[in-house]
Write a structure and sequence with these properties.
By secondary structure, the protein is an alpha/beta fold. The chain has helices spanning 13-27, 92-99, 121-141, 150-157, 175-178, 185-194, 215-226, 245-254, 269-278, 293-300, 311-317, 329-341, 343-360, 363-379; strands spanning 2-3, 33-37, 45-48, 51-56, 84-87, 108-111, 144-147, 166-168, 201-206, 234-239, 261-265, 281-284, 305-308, 322-324. α1 (13-27) links the parallel β1 and β2. α7 (215-226) runs parallel beside α8 (245-254), α7 (215-226) crosses α12 (329-341) and α10 (293-300) crosses α13.
Length: 380
């Protein structure tokens, strides 16, 4: 069983991680049930690609953490499973799994999806208090902890957790899904026309439009970029929704860059793949990340990437992307300008990035690592 704060149709990197891991576990002969919150509202029970999903009513989302009282009724169900796998030590889902740990016999695995920074003082202070109290408790209750990077492993160890209890297993992509033959040249041109992108060089952002993703610094960087290129040649395309979207639209209007920025809102996977294929540069200005799926996807499609110099990005990609300090819109703009002007650099990063992803970050290999861990814990 996997217990998670969110699952599809909520579409973030963590949710896609859980979906792909579950789907590949099933392909390799395992059964998977997912327990999650019913946010956004959807069917209480359904089967998605062989995954049995049960959603519980969400009463509130403090700091975007869904609270589902129905999770507290799960104590007896935990005993039905060989493995209980929860995600994100900051979530109420992980807290419930840890709370019931002494009442069931299945091993508890926790996957940590990176160190969390919200980008404002109050939220970050609350997060720090949580990590040193409840977060530490959840770490201690877990039989095995999965970190996405060596830096995150060191961070978890700082809470007094023995390193032997922590495994580093990275995020991954599914080449079969991303390389689907239906997203051909005609489909790409249809998306280009749909979003009025003809004749534009496209700088793409994929993710939630929230403060933690550094959206305000990306928007501040755009006027500087436009000073170095013809305004009519470049457009910044931001996919996704989030609680910073209203502010982002307002800031774009204030800076008079509305014609050079497109907020697509939620889009289909088919449109997303087409956007990856027709874009020129990918940018992720986040303040904190685990191991971002969107960078792996961008590299798979051969996009040169600009990312922030933070643990979840630096640990895996430092030699394959342009790194800039977080919260530095000037450096962010300069990196985008550099890739727009230096075709040789963009071409080198494009080729190196795709080779890296295909050699280390595919779901078949990652799932096999998880299965080996599961078997070791069950035998133990």
């Amino acid at each position: 069983m996997q217990i998670a704060p969110y699952f599809t149709p909520y579409n973030g990197g963590q949710e896609r991680y859980i979906y792909h891991l579950s789907r590949h576990l099933i392909r390799m002969g395992n059964e998977v049930d997912i327990i999650t919150s019913n946010y956004p509202p959807n069917k209480e029970t359904e089967e998605i690609d062989g995954i049995n999903v049960r959603r519980y009513y969400c009463v509130a989302r403090p700091l975007r953490n869904p609270l589902s009282p129905g999770f507290l009724l799960l104590g007896k169900r935990f005993r039905e499973y060989d493995i209980v796998h929860t995600h994100n030590e900051h979530s109420s889902a992980a807290m419930v799994a840890a709370f019931f740990k002494d009442r069931y016999h299945a091993p508890l695995i926790l996957t940590c999806h990176g160190q969390l920074r919200f980008g404002d003082y109050l939220s970050d202070t609350i997060e720090k208090w949580y990590s040193t109290s409840l977060g530490r408790l959840i770490f201690g209750k877990s039989d095995r902890i999965v970190a996405l990077s060596d830096t995150d492993k060191q961070y978890i160890s700082s809470f007094g957790i023995h390193e032997k209890k922590i495994s580093v297993i990275p995020n991954a992509i599914d080449p079969e899904q991303l390389g689907h033959p239906s997203i051909d040249g005609a489909a790409c041109e249809a998306v280009r026309e749909k979003y009025s992108l003809a004749g534009k060089r496209i700088v793409l952002f994929v993710g939630q439009v929230i403060r933690r993703k550094g959206i305000e610094y990306l928007i501040k960087a755009i006027p500087r970029v436009l000073q170095h290129v013809r305004r009519s040649d470049v457009i910044f395309v931001l996919t996704g929704i989030g609680d910073y979207l209203f502010d982002a639209r307002r800031d774009a209007k204030t800076m008079e860059i509305e014609e050079n920025i497109l907020f697509t809102g939620l889009i289909s996977m088919e449109d997303l793949i087409a956007l990856y294929k027709i874009s020129d540069i990918f940018v992720l200005p986040s303040l904190s990340e685990g191991l971002p799926t969107c960078i792996l996807e961008a590299m798979f499609f051969g996009l040169p990437v600009v990312g922030t110099d933070i643990p979840g990005v630096r640990d895996h990609f430092k030699d394959h992307i342009l790194l800039v300090p977080p919260r530095d819109d000037g450096a962010l703009a300069d990196a985008v300008i550099r890739l727009l002007e230096d075709e040789e650099l963009a071409r080198r990063l494009s080729g190196d990035g795709r080779k890296l992803v295909m050699s280390k970050y595919v779901w078949n290999a990652v799932t096999e690592n998880y299965i080996a861990m599961y078997k070791g814990l069950v035998r133990g």
